[in-house]
Q: What sequence folds into this?
């Protein structure tokens, strides 16, 4: 699908969303979860949706899934620091940063809402930090960026 942050490709395992990446792809079989994801992403980018309601199955270890759950708990328009999530999970902030960077479903699982203690931190999606800033501005988060 086309989006303000570039073309996005949503992937599924047949029942749940397992990936979101930047770029175009060939036509895929129409699946309800993919259609729902594209409709919800469109509503998100139009400012009509603040919380996704999709079946998600992020790839990765148990720790990765714990970090994804922590990111999903960050409301629209708010941010957390890597250290906040690290403290809640009892792990080093660097481990949280690595897990955020490995998020297989960015935007929907809002890794863009996680910031470094002294700055924005990174962003592994296409466009890097500019995309992260765009998403945060879109949500009215991190007033220091606006």
A:
């Amino acid at each position: 699908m086309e989006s303000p942050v570039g073309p996005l490709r949503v992937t599924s395992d047949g029942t749940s969303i397992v990936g979101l990446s930047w770029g175009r792809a060939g036509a895929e079989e129409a699946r309800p979860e993919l259609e729902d994801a594209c409709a919800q992403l469109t509503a998100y980018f139009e400012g009509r949706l603040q919380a996704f309601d999709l079946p998600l199955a992020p790839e990765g270890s148990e720790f990765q899934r714990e970090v994804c759950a922590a990111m999903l708990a960050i409301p629209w328009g708010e941010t957390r620091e890597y250290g906040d999530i690290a403290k809640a999970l009892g792990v080093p902030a660097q481990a949280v940063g690595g897990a955020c960077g490995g998020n297989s479903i960015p935007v929907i699982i809002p890794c863009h809402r996680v910031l470094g203690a002294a700055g924005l931190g990174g962003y592994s999606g296409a466009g890097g930090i500019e995309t992260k800033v765009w998403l945060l501005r879109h949500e009215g988060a991190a007033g220091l960026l606006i």
About this structure: Residues 62-141 form a domain with the Arc Repressor Mutant, subunit A fold (CATH 1.10.10.10). The chain has a mean pLDDT of 91. The first helix runs from residue 32 to 45. The helical segments are 32-45, 62-72, 82-89, 93-101, 129-139.
